[in-house]
Amino acid sequence: MLHIIKDSCPKMKMLHLIPQVILLSAVMARSAGSATCLAPERPFVPSDPVAAVEYADLIRQDFEDYIRDVQVYFRCLDAERARTFEQAREVSHQYGAFMNENMGK
């Protein structure tokens, strides 16, 4: 009898991991669809004043593009933060429900 209890102990320890693996899998599957917010690269400004004057239109356009892209980046971060916050709230509620149902609390 003691042999059976000893053998089942590691199996019992592994059983408590099943809900965590399921929950982690669900979170990972959802996060695969999440946005990837990439920060724009800084505009290049030549150190040579003659080149800066010569390419002023291109440099100006690079700055305008950067400002536009950084605004898009910030909106992406805000949206991703809101999405992740909502997901964390849902997961927290699911975990609480799981604990109440399965642990008798």
What distinguishing features does this structure have?
105 residues, mainly alpha, 2 domains, 4 helices, 0% strand, rod-shaped
In short:
This protein is mostly helical. The protein has helices spanning 2-15, 17-31, 49-54, 56-103. The radius of gyration is 26 Å and the shape is rod-shaped.
Structure notes:
The structure is a single chain. This protein is mostly helical. It has two domains: 1-33, no CATH class; 34-105. 79% of the residues lie in helices and 0% in strands. The chain has helices spanning 2-15, 17-31, 49-54, 56-103. It is rod-shaped and about 75 Å long. The two termini are 31 Å apart. 0% of the residues are buried.
Taking pLDDT < 50 over at least 5 consecutive residues as the criterion, the unreliable ranges are none
Shape: rod-shaped
Order of helices and strands: HHHH
| Average pLDDT level | 83
List the helices and strands and how they pair.
Layout: H1 2-15, H2 17-31, H3 49-54, H4 56-103
